[in-house]
Amino acid sequence: MSERPAGPALVGREDDVAVLTAALEAAGGGRMAALFLTGEAGVGKTRLVQDLAGRAAAAGATVLFGGATDIEESPPFWPVTSALRGLLRSDSGKAVRRQLEPWTAQVDELLAAGPVDPHARVQTLELLRHVVLRLAERSTVVLAVEDLQWADRSTLDLLAYLVANLPDERVLIVASHRTDAPSARSPARTMISELARHRQVRSLDVAPLRRAAVAELVAASAPGRPDLVELVWQRSAGNAFIAEETLRAVRDGDPQALSMTLRELVLSRIGGLAPAVLRVVRAVALCDGLLPHRLLAAALDDPADLLDALRVAVDAGVVVVDPGTDGYRLRHGLMTDVVVGELLPGERIDLHRRYAVALSAAWARELPGVDARLAHHWQAAGDTARAAAAAVAAAEAAVRVRGYAEAHRHWLRAARLAGAVTAPTPSRATCLERAAEAAHLAGDADQAVALVGERLELVDDPGGRDAALLHARTGQYLVAAGRGTEASFAYGRARDALPATGADQERAAVLGGHAAALWAAGDLAAARTTAQDALEAARRAGLVVEEARALATLGFSLAYLEDPAAGENALVASLAAAERAADPMEIAHAYRSLAELLCGPLNELDRGIRVSRTGGARIDQLGLSRSAGAGLLAVGANGLFRAGRWDEAEALVAEAWTHSPTGAEALELRLARARMDTGRGRFDEAEDDLEAVDALSAGSAGPRYRIPMWTLRAGVAMWRDRPDLALDHVGAGLDVVEQGSDDVWLDAPLVWHGARARAELTRLGMRRRDDGIDARLARHAAALARKAATSVPAVRVIVELFVRQCHAEDGRADNRSDPAEWADLAKEWGDLGQPYPTAYAHMRHAEAQFTRRAHSVAAIDALRRAERIVRELGATPFLAELTQLAERARVRIDTPVPAPRRAPELDPPSPRTVPGPVPADELAELTARELEVLSELADGHTNREVAQRLFISEKTVGAHVGRIYAKLGVHTRVQASAVWFRARPVRRT
Predict the structure, then answer these.
(1) 42 CB contacts (<8 Å, ≥6 apart)?
(2) What is the DSSP letter of 328?
(3) What is residue 104's predicted lDDT score, i.e. its pLDDT?
(4) 974: Cα within 13 Å, side-chain hemisphere
């Protein structure tokens, strides 16, 4: 076979190459980088990725290069596993296999898509993370994924997982994504948007070539023909693929082809091929995935002239050899689209049937994702029965490797096909149930809800037990989707469907789930009542596990609302019941609920810390240290932090990380570690953890993680003298609260951070346009006061302290800080045994006195009390601010401290201290999300359309629009759009 013609030189991409090179160098220096190359098809993304991969390999990097395929049935993690398979088959494969020895069996099992123990899905993510980590020990690892718009959900989850968990490794992730892909709401696009908030992630828009670059391309491809520049420029508009195809047509002696559309160019390109060659090209185009030579030969009945036809197609630059799979594909995705689109219906059906027959052979079972491909080809060939059977097999195979998003699609296909098959096995109802559960496990709770609704339509008796359990499952999925009100309604229907008497097993399950849903939604009063009913049903039916679950919800609700002693007794009973049932998860649940209650709302810190340690030891015995055990240690660490035992808290967090936790427990631990890092001034480390929480929890986790994350980000911004940014973070947190959080324990610190940020704006002499945040904070502070009044004393006292602290901060913001108010707060926080807020109130008490020129003994004593507490905690940034305050007040506290960050005047700022004019960039004050919203408004979209395009609620869009108007000083969409186009004129073309 002759050598493939060399591609045109890479021209006009100096800036893009520089960005990619910088990312590669950063990764080589031990700082993970991720780049997403976006742009229209044919613009040159692939060439940039290939160029980077080539330079990286030449420099000694380990390159994993894979591509997604344009079929829904691609196996889970396909781009990554195919890249790994290619690496293991390369010249360095033996060395790589030795390097991966601890996981060789698991890797082989994954690459073979064989049966795997059905543990949590994150096991596969962890395996691939370990593989990348081990490879990075030897050299920089470049993971390149082509055509991310077609990637399976598991691959997208893996990329997000690697970004979140490899911040300080020699790893570069680079992926290309077509912006002209059919789906404007593709999961890949959503993931890129969410990950863009990470500081080590960048999205690079690959623009069409400029005219000068096109001229350079013409000079390189057609020397001595400058007359072609204008023609190529007019026909290609800078699209590299069209430009190259146009030049190729000229070299082939057909200048008239230059005026054709891309489709016509491709058809002109293949039109000169002999019929035997064209038949091979069409077969390659339709394959939709891995195409080894043996499969192609089997599909075409192994014609004698197959090799000759392939040789001609490769020499013509139409077919290319895929070295990673020892197979074939067409040169470009656009070429594939055109060739497949030109097939006659009969030709398409015949080729699908041929591939299905070939893939049914025994030898084809070795191919990854064979069942999924069989389902695809049999269905396209019109054989419904075989397609249904293959879809079921594909779903089961996907579950074995924890590819739940793919399993959902396969079960859904099986359900649809089952309706056209006589006596299908399994039934359509079963397929729908399994599709719903797979969607739930994949994080698509809304789809799970829809599928259970479809399953309910098949129930014969709407008032029977089956209907009750299906409604309960709907409620479970709605809770996961964050739709608490609808979940309560679904559980209500489940309860209505239960018979008046009997069915205690189903009743206990339904009521127990309903109680947990009400608790998650923050309706603790209803949760308490429902949990009591669930408890009675569980005891009647003798269901000890359901009894333990109901007692846990009942105990927390009772303790939070009205009777801490009764609630604690219920939690102790829950633990005893779980131990009787020997149910590890319920034992862990009981310990966790009790520890969280004591370390949190009830503020019995010492007891809560003891429970977390005792429970942690018990959970270790049960083999759950990596999951529930790590989560319980995070609860204990938070209790130690509040108690002022920071060194112990750090040690506990470090111990928890040795278990390599994943999922929710990893989120809890990242928040706990970020809290410690913020307190001790390790802001970069805190930001790394908070960005990971943001990336991993966006769109899937509720207020439990999102509100503390925004609170901590506001705290970091405050210590960095960015109260303006802190208010943006608080505003984002309030968005979460307004979407349905009634947990005053979570909300109160967030609202106080907003009040503190407003006060800091005054202290630092900074201006901020009114974006409505002041009014929002006032509303939420008032709401906190109302809600606290109905809580038990322990909760009420702490929330009311935060509300009073907000009032005191408002005084600071208005230059009327009240020393007596701060003194009272310091005493009450101290009485509760919480040293950090005690020290803060002492500092503000002293500051208020000094502002009034009152250098009293009480003020100096307050400052020194704060210093002693902060020094013992090791709170470096707090100590620095105390030192600045002492220096400005000329008070000696006899403590060496870090260099001051800045020393503003203590007096209320005068107009002369306000920074100068607004920056030249009129959009500088807008947040990243506000810029996205403004861009959509400028494109003429309505609020509803913006909400759909950005995957946020219409109410949130309205809030963003209001803040945009306030920051820009405009009153209409037209005015806002004018500012956008003035500041970003490139978007108008």
Answers:
(1) 239, 240, 241, 242, 262, 332, 334
(2) E
(3) 84
(4) 0
Strand 327-330 relative to strand 319-322: parallel, antiparallel, unpaired?
A: antiparallel
How many Å separate Cα 212 from the centre of its chain? Answer: 40
Give per-residue pLDDT as tens, 595-636.
Answer: 988 888 888 899 999 999 999 888 888 777 766 788 899 999
The two tokens of residue 294 are 């043996």
Q: What is the largest CA-CA distance in the chain?
A: 102
CA separation for the pair 513, 530 (Å, rounded): 9
- Across the range 695-701, mean pLDDT stands at 62
- Please tell me the distance from the alpha carbon of residue 196 to that of residue 84, in angstroms, as a whole number: 26
Helix (H) or strand (E) holding 935: helix 928-938
3-state SS of 47-106?
A: HHHHHHHHHHHHCCCEEEEEECCCCCCCCCCHHHHHHHHHHHHCCCHHHHHHHCHHHHHH
Omega before 985 within 30 of 0, i.e. cis:
no
Q: Is 171 helix (H, G, I), strand (E, B) or coil?
A: strand
User: How many CB atoms lie under 10 A from the CB of residue 907?
Assistant: 12
User: Alpha-carbon torsion 649, 655, 658, 659, what sign?
Assistant: negative
Looking at residue 318, the DSSP 8-state letter turns out to be: S
Pairwise CA distance, residues 179 & 201, whole Å: 18
C-beta separation of 217 from 209 below 8 A? yes
**Helix ranges restricted to H, 622-743:** 630-642, 646-657, 663-679, 683-697, 703-719, 723-738
- pTM assigned to the model: 0.57
Backbone angles phi, psi at 305, to 5 degrees: -95, 15
> Higher confidence at residue 78 or residue 356?
356
Please tell me the distance from the alpha carbon of residue 837 to that of residue 825, in angstroms, as a whole number. 9
User: Is pLDDT above 60 for 327?
Assistant: yes
- β-bridge partners, 36: 175, 203
3-state secondary structure labels for all residues of 621-654: HCCCHHHHHHHHHHHHHHHHHHCCCHHHHHHHHH
Query: Measured between alpha carbons, how far is 153 from 145 in angstroms, rounded to an integer?
Result: 14
pLDDT at 891: 79
- Which residues lie closer than 8 Å to 346 by C-beta, 6 or more apart? none
Q: How far, in Å, CA of 568 to CA of 546, rounded? A: 18
**696, 106, 188: which is closest to 401 by C-alpha?**
106
User: Is pLDDT above 90 for 841?
Assistant: yes
Q: Write the CB contacts of 888 (distance below 8 Å, at least 6 apart in sequence).
A: 850, 903, 904, 905, 906
3-state secondary structure of 34: strand
Enumerate the β-bridge partners of residue 39: 178
Distance (Å, whole) CA 747 – CA 707: 7
DSSP string, 842-855: HHHHHHHHHHTT--
Give alpha helix (H) positions in 93-196: 93-99, 104-112, 122-138, 153-165, 187-195
pLDDT tier at 973, thresholds 50, 70, 90 = confident
CB atoms within 10 A of CB 542: 11
Confidence of residue 903 (pLDDT cuts 50, 70, 90): very low
Report the residue count for the chain. Answer: 989
Say if CB 400 and CB 118 are below 8 A apart. yes
